[in-house]
Amino acid sequence: MILAAGRGERMRPLTDHTPKPLLTINNKSLISLIILSLRAAGIRDLVINLAHLGAQIEAALGDGAALGVRIAYSREPEALETAGGIAHALPLLGSEPFVVVNGDVCSDYDLAAVKAAAPGLDAAGRLAHLVLVPNPPQHPHGDFALEGDRVRTEGEVRHTFSGIGAYHPALFAGVVPGARARLADLLRPAMREGRVSGELYRGRWQDIGTPQRLAAADRAARDAAH
């Protein structure tokens, strides 16, 4: 699943008329770059959630055939936040563990690794596997700690959640359909029970959350292409 329903408030005014996943880096939309990374990892069946200006995303991507994937859309009456959006899409995602990527992540992380972690999740055991990254300048205190292969709510060294993870549908069982719900509110209790695993990725990763970060990523991509 690609999360693409957010308003992108920090990206305004760019997102007043264009949904954030359709903003471009070196003339390629953020969401198309993510789709190509998923396809390279062997993930071809995708669900994309839509809210703010979602019709533009659907018009740009269609059924996904042009990018070599199959896309189903989960339309939200309003953005339901991460956990709410995933819970709303469960009828399309099915009963097996699945991979989720934020629609504003730019990274060279090999998504085959998180895909490989997904089958190890179980309703009675591990509920999630998160990819963490070193804290970027805009988020110096991080989100979670990593103790061996387990993600903890607290620790001496904290890392930032990358927006890339794998989840078992059972994690979202308590979310009321159509309700807004934050992913962290589901993950933290599971972490305290030792039911969230993780890994630390030290390669290229950017959260394209502001116009300045988008411009920096665009310059870096153009420089790399020459």
Can you describe what's shown?
By secondary structure, the protein is α/β, with parallel strands linked by helices. The protein has a single domain, classed as Spore Coat Polysaccharide Biosynthesis Protein SpsA, Chain A, CATH 3.90.550.10. The chain is 28% helix and 25% strand. The strands form three sheets. Strands 1, 4, 5, 6, 8, 9, 10, 11 and 12 form a nine-stranded mixed beta sheet that branches. The chain has a two-stranded antiparallel sheet with strand order 2-3. A two-stranded antiparallel ribbon has the order 7-13. Helix 2 links the parallel strand 4 and strand 5. The two termini are 32 Å apart. The mean pLDDT is 93.
Write the layout of secondary structure elements.
Layout (H helix, E strand, L loop, with lengths): L1 E2 L20 E2 L2 E2 H11 L4 E6 L3 H8 L8 E6 L5 H13 L4 E5 L2 E3 L3 H7 L10 E6 L10 E4 L2 E3 L5 E10 L15 H10 L3 E5 L4 E3 L3 H15 L1
Parallel strand pairs: 1-4, 1-6, 4-5, 8-12
Antiparallel strand pairs: 2-3, 6-11, 7-13, 8-11, 9-10, 9-11
Short description:
With 226 residues, the protein is an alpha/beta fold. The chain contains 6 helices and 13 strands.
Salient structural properties:
single chain, about 230 residues, alpha/beta, Spore Coat Polysaccharide Biosynthesis Protein SpsA, Chain A, nine-stranded mixed beta sheet, two-stranded antiparallel sheet, 6 helices, 13 strands, about 25% strand
